[in-house]
Structures are given as structure tokens and as C-alpha cells.
Amino acid sequence: MKRTYDDLWKEAWQEATERGPSCRTRFRIMLRMFRKYGLKGSVLDVGCGDGNFLSILAGIGQKKEKKGKKDRDGFRLYGFDISNKAIELAKGKEFISDLFVGDLLDRKTLPKRRFDVVVCSEVLEHVDDYRKALDNIAGLVKKGGKTLITVPHSMRYWTEHDKYAMHFRRYEKKEFENDVKRAGFRIKEGFAWGCFMYDIYYFFLGRSKPEKVMGKPGMIKKILSYLLYYIFMLDDLFIGNNGRRLFILAEKI
């Protein structure tokens, strides 16, 4: 599986994090939640991939050097991923304090410290024992610290694209929130997003082969991706219990 993720980062996923309207929208909403809850301090992105979300956090403030550590307006940024290729790409981002390669299910490979914020975005659906993964995430968060988790919402949206992306499941909101609570967190905010324009987009996307959608984009595809990013903002008006993406912000008890 590790080899396969390396291959996906070489072939398609880097392009998706840079230009894909779905990924860019997810990052936009996550950044809004960071600002809403004033999240700062040490931030670990579990499943950081090529580090693009950390790039967005780094862009919030001006760079400051403090005691040999890289600090950006209150952020000290760290990344963790199972893919050596992803970490290789992330190493090009000089504002990241440290990077770790490991398996979220193997505690021996996790960072040996706790963080103010742990981000886990579009990772748990790739993990067989996601409840164990939640327990391990809890072990990485300081008491009173926060975790921001995003996962695909609801099995009623399951398609061949999920299989192609190596997903084990999609998550039901109430059940997943209960799992997060059992891991030792208090839910601060939880909502589903993407029940209008994003849903229409995926209805048509589901008629295309996944490998074609994830392929290298031409100029027309790049323009459409740019337009879709702004069109998806309409779905911010319909945040609630319905939608294809689930966002959870929780506090460590």
C-alpha cells in the first residue's frame, strides 16, 4: 500500500492539491476554521502529503525566527505522512519545522511529542482500523488542544472514485462524532458540506472514469477547475447535516 501511495503522489495527487477545486475548497474551509477558533502554536498535519495545507497556514503571517525554530505568526508547522514521495515533496517547503515518515496505526513511528493542533484531513478513510487511528491522534494532542478532521461523508455517496482512491469507507456524521468523543475529545463543531453545487459536480464526475479525472489537466480542465472553486462557495450557504464532505473540530479533554 505504501508503494501505491508513493505512485499516486508521483502521478496525480500533487496536481490535485495545487489546482483541484475539491481539495482547494477543503483547504479554504479548514483555514476558516483555524481563524474562527484562533488555532495557533505547534501544528502537526497527519497525512500532510506535499505540505500544501501547511503552505496555506504559513502564508497567514510573516516569518519569524525564535530560538532556532521556524515560526510563522504563532505557528510551528510539522508534517507526517506514510508516503516517502509525499515527504520528499514537502521537504521543499522551508517553513516546515520537521517532517516524519510513518504509519498512523503504528505508535512507534509517530512523533514523540504532543501538539497544540493536529490536522487529519482525508486520511482516516484510507485506514483499515480508523478507531485505533483516532486513539493515536488523541495521543498526539495536548490536553485542551484541538484536532481538525475531515473525511468523506455518508456511504450513500460511495462511487468507483472512492475505490480508485483506496478508501475503505465513507462516514456517517453522528456515528463518526461518537467515535471522536470515545477517543477523548469534545466536539466543538461538526458539519457536512457540499449538498448543492458540489453534489451536482460529483454526479457528473461519477460518469467519468477515475483515472481520467485524476490525469494531468489540459488548459480547459485548468480553467474549469478555477471556475469550479468559486462556484463551490455557494455551498457554504447550505452547511448542515447533508453533503459529501464532513468537517469536525474537537478539543482534547
Characterise this structure.
By secondary structure, the chain is an alpha/beta fold. The chain has one domain: 3-Layer(aba) Sandwich (Rossmann fold). It is 39% helix and 25% strand. The protein is built from 10 helices and 9 strands. The strands form 2 sheets. A 7-stranded mixed sheet has the order 5-4-1-6-7-9-8, sandwiched between helices. A two-stranded antiparallel sheet has the order 2-3. Helix 1 (2-19) crosses helix 2 and helix 2 (21-36) runs parallel beside helix 10. The protein is globular, with a radius of gyration of 17 Å.
Superfamily at the CATH H level? Answer: Vaccinia Virus protein VP39
Mean pLDDT: 88
Strand order of the largest sheet: 5-4-1-6-7-9-8
The rough form would be described as globular
Largest sheet: 7 strands, mixed
Can you tell me the CATH architecture? 3-Layer(aba) Sandwich
DSSP helical segment count: 10
* pLDDT < 50 stretches: 61-68
| Tally of separate domains | 1
Question: Within the CATH hierarchy, at the fold level, what is the topology?
Answer: Rossmann fold
Structural class: alpha/beta
Give a short synopsis of this structure.
By secondary structure, the protein is of the alpha/beta class.
Considering the chains and any ligands shown, give keywords for the structure:
253 residues; alpha/beta; Rossmann fold; 7-stranded mixed β-sheet; two-stranded antiparallel ribbon; 9 strands
List the helices and strands and how they pair.
Layout: H1 2-19, H2 21-36, E1 41-46, H3 52-58, E2 63-66, E3 69-72, E4 75-81, H4 84-90, E5 96-101, E6 115-121, H5 130-138, E7 141-152, H6 160-164, H7 173-182, E8 185-193, H8 197-205, H9 210-213, H10 219-231, E9 245-252
Parallel strand pairs: 1-4, 1-6, 4-5, 6-7
Antiparallel strand pairs: 2-3, 7-9, 8-9
Helix pairs in contact: 1-2, 2-10
